Amino acid sequence: MGRPDPDLARAFEETWPAAETVRCGGFIVGRGLGAGGRVSSGLADGPWTPDDIEAACAQHVAWGQRPLFRAWDDQGDLIDALTARGFAVEIPTLVMSAPVASLTDRPLPPVTTFTVWPPMAIQRQIWGAGNINPARQAVMDRVTQPKAAILGRIQDRAAGSAFVAVHGPVAMVHGVEVLAPFRRQGLAGWMMRQAAFWAAEHGATRIGLAVSRANQAAQATYASMGFSVNGSYAYYGRD
């Protein structure tokens, strides 16, 4: 498994953009401003040379970022080159997608999920209680595609928050967070279904997400909703 199909790959990048990008030969290097590896890494999008790797590393250092690359699992030559330079694999991740129709086959329970933009203060608090810090929330704010924040409610209170944006025929879900006392009660699943209904309204026919390989419980939940694996990547970092 390696790169996803072009529609999914484009949506994956466009719905979670870096604050700034610079081309270093065959790499696009993102400036993340503290928003995590997805937007703070170098990604090969064409032929590259060893000098391009060094140029990408220099750009990271100029921005005050540690050198970090994101490589699809089928980019063996790049992975070998990074490993030879002391880069270590971090956070192996799967990209999964499903037909929107597979998540819109049943009605949503009343007052369980809502879509809004901009996010409400309680949604930002829910994100902040997990690992969706203000820098990651800033990524959502700068997305230019149609987008929405999803609020999840359970036991008569706000308990979950997520972000969805659409690019072409694909909607991508990011930043799914459920407060710890309310996990494993099905709320994340209803939030995903809400994202699918929203995606359908905006012309998307597929819905995608990224999940770490270590999170097998989430993978199982997504698979039960019709998601399948379409790509896999990992980060390669060096201090």
Describe the structure.
This protein has 239 residues and is an alpha+beta fold. The protein has 2 domains: 6-93, no CATH class; 97-231, Aminopeptidase (3-Layer(aba) Sandwich). It is 31% helix and 33% strand. The protein has helices at residues 6-14, 50-62, 76-84, 121-129, 134-142, 187-201, 216-224, and strands at residues 20-24, 27-31, 42-44, 68-72, 88-99, 113-116, 147-154, 157-167, 170-178, 206-212, 228-237. The strands form 2 sheets. The protein has an 8-stranded mixed β-sheet, sandwiched between helices. A 3-stranded antiparallel β-sheet has the order 1-2-3. A hairpin with a 2-residue loop joins strand 7 and strand 8. It is globular, with a radius of gyration of 18 Å. The model has no long low-confidence stretch (mean pLDDT 97).
